[in-house]
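Q: Is it fine to ask for two folds in a single conversation?
A: Yes, each is treated on its own. Send the first.
Q: Here.
A: Result:
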Amino acid sequence: MRMRQLEAFRATILNGTISSAAKSLNTTQPTISRLLSDLEYSLKLTLLHRRKGRVVPTQEGMIFYRKLDDVFEAFTKLKTAAEDISRDRKQELRIISLGALSISIVPEIMEEFTANHPEISIIINTTDVKSYFNMIMDENLDIAFGNQMGEQPGVEQVILAKVDYVCALPPNHPLCEKDIVYEEDLIGEKLIALDSDDVLAFHQHTDLYKRINPITQFSTQHSANAYSLVKQGLCSGVLEPFSAKLWAASGVEIRPFKPTISYKYSAYYQETRKQNPIIKELVDIAARKFKKYETT
């Protein structure tokens, strides 16, 4: 019994005909027929009935086919392991982060890390919240940086910091005269709402808005969208602090906000990478970089 015979049998069941199976495996119909005959001979079982150009699995054939899933799952894991080994040999890292972090704190992490490891190639991608939630469970991903979310099976979560959000004001807004903006200062103001969903929840913002009843014409989950609207003078916002300096340079006024609204940020990686020294180093560097934003 050989792997190629199992592939031919599986493809035949999935496609319904030997000719279609041959196309899916990029081979010829006689080759598939021979592989099937050899498999049946080696197993001493009749796996298929041939009927007018189509093949129908026998009862024994279906029982055998169901067991094949375990084989191909193991085969897929072996391929993934081989790819991981190859990628480790090439010294390549795959990183994702949410938008605000990708333009602020992630470059700081990379600056220190690459100074220590100039030989490592790094692929960095920014993603939306829902894709991020799914991607942190991808075995091909090395590490992710973003908002704290619920625990995921097989994924290690390390909380890096709990950070205070800041008040972002349009240029020349009357509240720019204040050193600290308090929630009562925002009563009736135009504020951007931060969208909550099943993946990412801004509960503290929801509670704040219930108390002060602002005008919320705009809402978003993306920090860059929020800061852009503030810069344009369309609203104010209580927003993440990571990219605040970048937006302050373009005219947005940043003030501390009281009482504090704080959210946690985490690093995520596969539990199988828990002992990987490169991942440990990345988490240590990230923890130091996030520390300066941490709630005091």
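Q: Second one now.
A: Result:
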Amino acid sequence: MSKPQDGFVSRFLNRPISRRITPFLLKFPIHPSAWTISIFVLPLIACLFFVRGDYVSVVIGAAIFQAFSILDGCDGEIARAKNLESKFGERLDNFCDFLASLLYVLALGWGLQRSGEGIICATLITANEWLLRGGKGKMSSASSMLHESFYVRHHGMIGHSGLLNLGERFVWWLFQLTKRDMAVFVFLMLALLGLADWILHLWTIVAGASLILSAIAAIRSGIGHGDVVTREPRS
């Protein structure tokens, strides 16, 4: 029931837990999209804690988001088990994840009295998502592992931004360490360490860097650079 796009945290923490929950859910007539919508209450509850801004509330909010990240895997597992995978379900899941990210940074920024940074981060996330959605999702690569490790919406950015010039292994590790499952888990650790400010700092930096790469990819693909083809990796 796992996916090749799963990051480290999904593969070794989130997915083992969700795989134990999904068989129980399969006993009921639950549609994957209904599950996606129903668990969205968790980010809303987490935001109520974030806006309070104190240590305990931020930790609780980050822990709820970690629980949301785990349960978020169940909709895909239900869909694959019931053969109900669809483009609509994928778009709904992506939209809920995107909206949850905006709520995270805005609520946390408000609670930490850094609402300006929260708004900037939310703006960067939105702009990057818009560019990723509008980009051409093509990436030619000699490595099938690299190709399968990313969602289609990232292929255009990786293929046209010039990242592959740094090497496939570097790109693979870069994305593994900045995937959403890893970010949510790291943010929980930062909250536990009393470094909640760094959640906003790191998210803003990563969102800004991703936006720059997406913009470069959009410009290059727009002027007809075509798909990037990497050389066969050396053994």
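Q: Anything structural to flag on that second result?
A: Two points. The domain at 8-222 is CATH 1.20.120.1760 (Four Helix Bundle (Hemerythrin (Met), subunit A)). The chain has a mean pLDDT of 85.
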